[in-house]
Amino acid sequence: MKLCFSSSSSSSFLRIILVSSILHLLHLNANNYASAIPNKIGKGYRLISIEEYPDGGLLGHLQVKEKNNIYGPDIPLLQLFVKHETGNRLRVHITDAEKQRWEVPYNLLPREAPPSFRQTIGSRKYTHSHTLTGGAEYAGSELIFAYKPDPFSFSVKRRSNGETLFDTSSGDSDSYSDLVFKDQYLEISTKLPKDASLYGLGENTQPHGIKLRPNDPYTLYTTDISAINLNADLYGSHPVYMDLRNGGNDASAHGVLLLNSNGMDVFYRGDSLTYKVIGGVFDLYFFSGGSPLAVVDQYTALIGRPAPMPYWAFGFHQCRWGYHNLSVVEEVVASYKKAQIPLDVIWNDDDHMDGHKDFTLNPKNYPHPKLSAFLDKIHSLGMKYIVIIDPGIGVNNTYGTYTRGLSNDVFIKYDGKPFLAQVWPGAVNFPDFLNPKTAEWWADEIRRFHALAPVDGLWIDMNEASNFCNGLCTIPQDRICPNGTGPGWICCLDCKNMTKTRWDDPPYKINASGTQVPIGYKTIATSAYHYNGVLEYDAHSLYGFSQSVATHEGLLRLEGKRPFILTRSTFVGSGRYAAHWTGDNKGTWDDLRYSISTMLNFGIFGVPMVGSDICGFYPAPTEELCNRWIELGAFYPFSRDHANFYSPRQELYQWKSVAISARNALGMRYKLLPYLYTLSYEAHVSGAPIARPLFFTFTNETKLYGLSKQFLLGKSLMVSPVLHRNKTELKVLFPPGTWYNLFDMTKVVVSKASHYLSLDAPLHVINVHLYQNAIIPMQRGGLITKEARKTPFTLVVSFPLGEKSGEAKGNLYLDDDELPDMKLGNGRSSYVEFYATVSEGAVKVWSGVEESKFALEKGLIVEKVVVLGLEGIGSAVEVEVDGNTVEGSFGISSTGHEYHGEKLEEGADKMKNVMVEVKGLELPVGKKFVISWKMGTKS
User: Fold this and answer.
1) Catalytic-residue membership of 330
2) Per the residue annotation, which of 265, 283, 344, 584 is the catalytic one?
């Protein structure tokens, strides 16, 4: 949700006016701000001891060389721990050697614990040809850790070729310091080659595309400001980046994570990168890669694999803040059906609530009996229903959720009392999700609400956390707050500023909200505290993540079904529990373009189920823009139309032209559901992004490194949307190979080198192309996933055009999507691999099946095989199932391919190739089959 001019459940209107104004000035001076070189701080540390740790790794101590008081006193003695945790992952952990420091809790993000502070160094020396005066190396199977003792610095190298990936040394000519470690200021830097391409470090809206730009500001601190604010810290904190390098057409990628939840600025200068962090420890993880996919695989192996998603989550979703009563929701559902536009999930923002209070129903506008009848009806059709819940719990002694929370002592505190804030219900307290009792209380509230309204998932918003007020507040005694007459986002509590502690006013000011506002601005006061005295100062950016964990557990307990959670605020590891939408965008062409980069970033962050509000959250989109947005949004992993209370209605049936585009684009999405669901399985087992940049497949193509206007779904489908107004022609960058138009597979582009081609793109058309050497499973589609997934399959096989000897591969994952996990071996899932070859004039398509039981029980069949790029049509088709010949009248036909562009390749106009269709098949998906034929003469 929310506000007319701000965030989906936003902060105050005045705040957005302020932020937007200041950001305008900020952007005018961005280069001056970001490139300002700070003075060097101190002389760093010296390594005074290092030995082999009994359980593996190196354990050492660092002593500060020269004390100073810039940003506070130095911590005099540090503990260094280095370990190759796996063959492809190296960890470097630096903390205070004499005092416990804040770290991301190990129970929240499970991982191996380093030695405790004040660890006694063992007696066994690590003796790999080094002395403390000369430096040494500590090698793993793929990475090498090397260090220099005085001043202490370290580097990480790739073992295969010696390439330096990370180097913290600071020379006289470098603009950054040696290692700095104070209580509230930590600084570490690395050299970088100027031709490195960096990605990540979010969440932010990057106007120039997915590739990080030198001297743009990168601040990480979860903040509720609208996503329209460019290059500013937004809802999530992901201090991870991928570094892609290409030396002589031999590209390799690696990843770097600084696991730290404190606020930080990251200064990327092109030839160096500096972290400036206001607390915690240096907990650095290095992932060797070397492909982009391998980096994400290794990263998610540490932070948690992406959550399994229910099948219906890949259908289309409709939401709006402003469905004032149930009859409006019923009308929306009926109108989608009448317009023959697919719809799987209907959502409510807070309109269903009683006074904006979580886990309640408005007795007048959403009466329980009528809502129950409505849910029974849509559930019988296979549709789903999701509602919003915000973390702020209304302070109201007649409100059961609040009183039970109070009696269980689950709220964040300040001076021994629950910290008071204001959000939509008025005065609120915030649950402390780091407290084990809170998770129990939260799960019970979910259970109680589900008994009242059997929702199918939960949408957790405002969880940065957002607060309409600042400082230490009390409920006014002389007036009603809020009084119901003005905007709900204006602070009406009695508040006073809080700057008396170093937690409220730290010595180093991160670039919070893009304007260096106080870090407690419009959120929980940073001197408030959580369970066991944990400061909000340290745990702030974990709030949405910890709420996702608790919500996931609460939903899982209900009926043991696979949860669906959509969260706005995210942190490292959030993808293990939840999907994400990109927050409050605008209905503008710029925001349409920005949505692609943010989506692709979250794939790198391990949150592959992601999308933006289609047609924009506010204000009113134009009809043309909404056409183009649903064409793009139909191919977001998470596809939802959502609008603001103050915006005109923008459901896809509101314009006839948009309805045509929606039927076209969503019609293709629903045919591709088995492909998308299989990609979600791959994401769950390997972290592979569903939507990904083109360089993930074409890693050596440097032209693609900054490409942010096209993307891939999986390895093989390229989506190329129209992103500018009044355009009916589109320049598409085609990497080398053969590309088939998915909407008309007779149309083909052949490219020997990456280059742009102009394609027709009339209003209702989006260009989607299938790459060579692929097999994708498709179905007939439908208006709802429950029915679409029952329809027969078509296998589309793509060979390089005219290839005399080639092969193609694909796969299909099927399961009971109510199961909590996505895996084989449970009797309720099946996995099929498809293969195809063309060789010596013969074509062969066959399958291999694991765990066939589920697919056979569902009676799923393959009715058609389409093979692209062949030289001729062929003879009679031979079919075998489980080794037995199948007789039948199988139809085989061909259509000539149409080549795009004049003189696209040498001799291309002389080639004669065809698309061959084999129909009349009834091949059980759960059985192994072979289809073959001779090509015969050219068509």
Assistant:
1) no
2) 584
